[in-house]
């Protein structure tokens, strides 16, 4: 897998095919120009990072060795179930960490994403005492205070794949209500599960498949997970209406819908 903002070549290829089929029905003339736009839509080369730069730790400090220890432990621990939390050290040098992969990832894919997340967060956040990174397939956060189990709907990043404003583009009138219903259904399934995650599909009135994801960090309670997901779903359909696909990543949960298969359904 390529963690620089794209899904695997496989799902991109299918994504392109489906996106094209979707358009071919109504506006063949626009296919060529929109083709690139759909596939490359709004996904940047590097994932979003948020650094807590309220202070910086020193090279060779106790905090740094605690952080390395937490990262090692997360990397090993995540091999078992795609999720781990870890804390190490004594205040004020104590470090808390959390790492979670999307549930359809293989153990190897999760490991690759986790390693990438750790290397990249250190590049972007330097010696900041806290940081979060969302490399599309996994999510890593560390802090100098105990954030584990805390609901935090603070937005990490949003990616919207834009069909909107392109005159003549056909999206069935029920597309967004179908997408919203799918995400609500997935939220209801995800929140009580120990994985706090659900992936699934629905059809709109033109038998176009919509692919969806609702996922909380696993340290969240069922109630907080429900709250995070419903907050995010309301937010995307209110603040980002009309898109063909949206990913909304907050500190505690992720919601996403697309018109191409962005996950590996054989792994579920
Ligand atoms: C940043 O870290 C400090 C502790 O060093 C903490 O008090 C503060 O809440 C953190 N900010 C965020 C946004 O997590
Ligand atoms: C994290 O991984 C360690 C093994 O490395 C395991 O003992 C621990 O139970 C895991 N914690 C969680 C919350 O999964
Ligand atoms: C999908 O998941 C299955 C089962 O985990 C795995 O064997 C396969 O390699 C995965 N495919 C891709 C494209 O990641």
TrEMBL record:
Entry superkingdom: Eukaryota
Location relative to the cell: Secreted
Signal peptide annotation: none
Gene3D superfamilies according to UniProt: Gnk2 domain, C-X8-C-X2-C motif (3.30.430.20)
PROSITE patterns: GNK2
Gnk2-homologous domain sequence ranges: 45-147, 157-262
Spans through the membrane: 12-34
Protein family per UniProt: Belongs to the cysteine-rich repeat secretory protein family.
Function as written in the Swiss-Prot or TrEMBL entry: Exerts antifungal activity through its carbohydrate-binding specificity.
Protein name per UniProt: Gnk2-homologous domain-containing protein
Organism: Picea sitchensis (Sitka spruce)
């Amino acid at each position: 897998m390529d963690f620089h903002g794209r899904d695997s070549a496989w799902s991109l290829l299918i994504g392109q095919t489906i996106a094209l089929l979707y358009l071919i029905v109504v506006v063949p003339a626009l296919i060529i120009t929109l083709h690139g736009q759909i596939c490359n839509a709004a996904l940047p080369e590097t994932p979003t990072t948020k650094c807590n730069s309220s202070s910086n730790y020193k090279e060779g400090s106790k905090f740094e060795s605690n952080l390395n220890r937490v990262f090692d432990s997360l990397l090993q621990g995540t091999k078992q179930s795609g999720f781990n939390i870890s804390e190490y050290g004594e205040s004020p040098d104590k470090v808390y960490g959390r790492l979670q992969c999307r549930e359809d990832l293989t153990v190897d894919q999760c490991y690759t994403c986790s390693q990438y997340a750790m290397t990249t967060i250190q590049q972007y956040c330097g010696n900041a005492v806290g940081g979060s990174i969302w490399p599309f397939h996994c999510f890593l956060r560390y802090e100098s205070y105990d954030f584990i189990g805390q609901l935090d709907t603070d937005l990490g990043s949003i990616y919207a794949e834009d069909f909107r404003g392109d005159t003549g583009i056909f999206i069935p009138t029920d597309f967004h209500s179908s997408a919203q219903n799918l995400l609500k259904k997935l939220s209801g399934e995800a929140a009580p599960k120990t994985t706090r995650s659900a992936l699934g599909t629905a059809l709109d009135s033109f038998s176009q498949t919509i692919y969806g994801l609702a996922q909380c960090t696993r340290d969240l309670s069922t109630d907080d997970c429900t709250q995070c997901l419903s907050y995010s779903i309301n937010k995307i359909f209110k603040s980002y209406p009309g898109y063909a696909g949206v990913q909304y990543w907050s500190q505690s949960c992720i919601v996403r819908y697309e018109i191409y298969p962005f996950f590996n359904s054989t792994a579920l």
